[in-house]
Amino acid sequence: MHTFHLPAGADRAEIYTELLATAQALVEGEPDLVANLANLAACLKQLPGVSWAGFYRQVGDDLVLGPFQGKLACTRIGPGKGVCGAAAARREALVVPAVDAFPGHIACDADSRSEVVVPIVRGERLLGVIDLDSDRPANFDDRDAEHLTRLAALVAGLAWPA
C-alpha cells in the first residue's frame, strides 16, 4: 500500500505532486468507488489547514454526501445551493477565502472560514464535487483549485455508477 507523506517544509506544489502520485497509486487496480473516495478523503484531510475534506456525489438533482474526513456534514445539498452547489452548477472550481461573505453559504461547520470546491466531470456529466474546508481564513487559493482540478480528473476516471 502507498502512504501519503508530507515532507517537512514542502511548498504547495511539492505537496500536490505527492498527493497526486499517492492518489494514482491508491486507485490503481481498485474498482470500488467508495473505497477509493474514502482513501482520497483521508489524504486530502492531511493537507495544510484542512479541517474537512470529502466528496459529494451527484444523485438526481442533488449533491449527496460521500466519503469524507472531519466533523459531521450536510447530507444533501440542493441544486445551486452553497459553495458546493454553485461550483457544481457552474462546472468550475470555486475558491472562497471568507465563507461568511459567500451568498447562500451553507454552514455545516460553524468553525469553517474558507473553502475550495472542485467539480468532478466526465464529458458533459457532473459526477460530484471535491470539497475542502478550513477553519483558517483564506487557506486556499487558485493554486489549490488548479491542483485539485487534476485530482478531479483522476477521480472522474474511476468507476462511477451509471
Q: Largest sheet, described in full? A: 6 strands, antiparallel
Beta-strand portion reads 25-35%
Structural class: alpha+beta
> What helical percentage do the residues reach?
25-40%
Number of domains: 1
**CATH architectural group:** 2-Layer Sandwich
Q: Any low-confidence stretches, pLDDT <50, length ≥5?
A: none
Determine the number of helices (DSSP H or I, runs of at least 4 residues): 4
**The level-1 CATH class:** Alpha Beta
State the distance separating the first and last CA atoms: 29 Å
Question: CATH-wise, what's the superfamily?
Answer: GAF domain
Query: What is the string of helix and strand elements?
Result: HHEEEHEEEH
Shape: globular
* Order of neighbouring strands in the sheet with most strands: 3-2-1-6-5-4
| Whole-number mean pLDDT | 95
Q: What is the tally of beta strands?
A: 6
Rg, nearest Å: 14 Å
CATH topology group:
Beta-Lactamase
Q: Overview of this structure, please?
A:
With 162 residues, the protein is of the alpha+beta class. The chain is built from 4 helices and 6 strands. A hairpin with a 6-residue loop joins strand 2 (62-69) and strand 3 (76-77). The protein has helices spanning 12-27, 33-45, 82-90, 142-156; strands spanning 50-59, 62-69, 76-77, 94-96, 114-122, 125-134. The radius of gyration is 14 Å and the shape is globular. Helix 1 (12-27) packs antiparallel against helix 2 and helix 1 runs parallel beside helix 4. The chain has a 6-stranded antiparallel sheet with strand order 3-2-1-6-5-4, with helices on both faces. The protein has one domain: 2-Layer Sandwich (Beta-Lactamase).
